[in-house]
Specification:
Elements: E1 3-13, E2 18-29, E3 34-38, H1 45-52, E4 60-65, E5 68-69, H2 75-85, E6 86-89, H3 101-110, H4 118-127, H5 143-155, E7 161-165, H6 173-190, E8 194-197, H7 201-204, E9 209-214, E10 217-223
Parallel strand pairs: 3-8, 3-9, 6-7, 7-8
Antiparallel strand pairs: 1-2, 1-4, 4-5, 9-10
Helix pairs in contact: 3-5, 5-6
This protein binds adenosine-5'-diphosphate (2 copies).
One adenosine-5'-diphosphate binds next to strand 2 and helix 1.
């Protein structure tokens, strides 16, 4: 099992009552699966994804990635684990404006004092069709191009698992669909496991599996 989620809970103190943002969630994701998480605003999607990626600490429960219970790791080891094993794509791209495209892409390796596998890097950049952008700065790129750079950056470490939080949320419908179809074809070639939060049902319908959240609980888990 690539990802095993056991009895995961995250509560917040609201004004009136406790908010059960993620409430007793269990599921397993196998290698190469492309899973979309959908649900209304406030259903817990972002909180769940942040818990899976080690960005937030649960009140209870386990997240096992490749057999490692990530919340049993020390803070430093979790940071290191995330840097080596987890790719994350954000809604707002999160590229560093003072670095050019290539510097942005290899940043996760640079932070780990590693050098890129040139063959892999070249293949990925070609698959994402950004080979003529590598010397540019993010501010000169369109939204779709910036998100493709962010995908390359997330994949550069050859992550065990890739998480994406509304990656098309800042793109128009057509550009969003193009970016996702590129992501899917790269993922196929790399056997990449993906868990993605999306509002867009047309995108969710292209996944292998769709998990629906409501009030922090899984109300549907559908294989397509
Ligand atoms: P979604 O991503 O589906 O919109 P979220 O995970 O952002 O849902 O939020 C789930 C619930 O938890 C919502 O009721 C939200 O208001 C609440 N919530 C999320 N983050 C916090 C926080 N840091 N403090 C308090 N409440 C939060
Ligand atoms: P999305 O649903 O698109 O992820 P949100 O606007 O719900 O975006 O949340 C954005 C950020 O604000 C998240 O990191 C979430 O944890 C936090 N957040 C959401 N709801 C609350 C809340 N009620 N109180 C504090 N922080 C919140």
């Amino acid at each position: 099992m690539m990802l095993e989620v056991v009895n995961l809970k995250k509560y917040y103190n609201g004004n009136q009552a406790v908010i059960k943002a993620v409430d007793k969630v269990d599921f397993v994701v196998e290698q190469k699966q492309f899973v979309c998480i959908i649900g209304k605003s406030g259903s817990g999607k972002s909180t769940l994804l942040n818990l899976l990626a080690g960005l937030e600490i649960p009140a209870e429960g386990e997240v096992n990635i490749n057999g490692i219970n990530i919340y049993k790791l020390s803070k430093d080891d979790l940071t290191k684990f995330r840097r080596r094993h987890i790719g994350f794509i954000f809604q707002n791209f999160n590229l560093l404006p003072m670095l050019n495209v290539m510097e942005n892409i290899i940043l996760p390796l640079s932070l780990d004092n590693k050098i890129p596998d040139e063959e892999y890097l070249k293949q990925m950049i070609e698959l994402l069709a950004i080979e003529d952008k590598v010397d540019e700065f993010p501010s000169t790129l369109s939204g779709g191009q910036q998100q493709r750079v962010a995908i390359a950056r997330a994949l550069v470490i050859k992550p065990t698992i890739l998480f994406a939080d509304e990656p098309t949320g800042n793109l128009d419908k057509k550009t969003g669909e193009e970016v996702i179809s590129l992501l899917q074809s790269v993922a196929k070639q790399l056997n990449q496991t993906i868990v993605m939060v999306t509002h867009d049902l047309d995108i969710a319908n292209k996944a292998d599996r769709v998990i629906t959240l409501e009030d922090g609980k899984i109300i549907e888990d559908r294989i397509l």
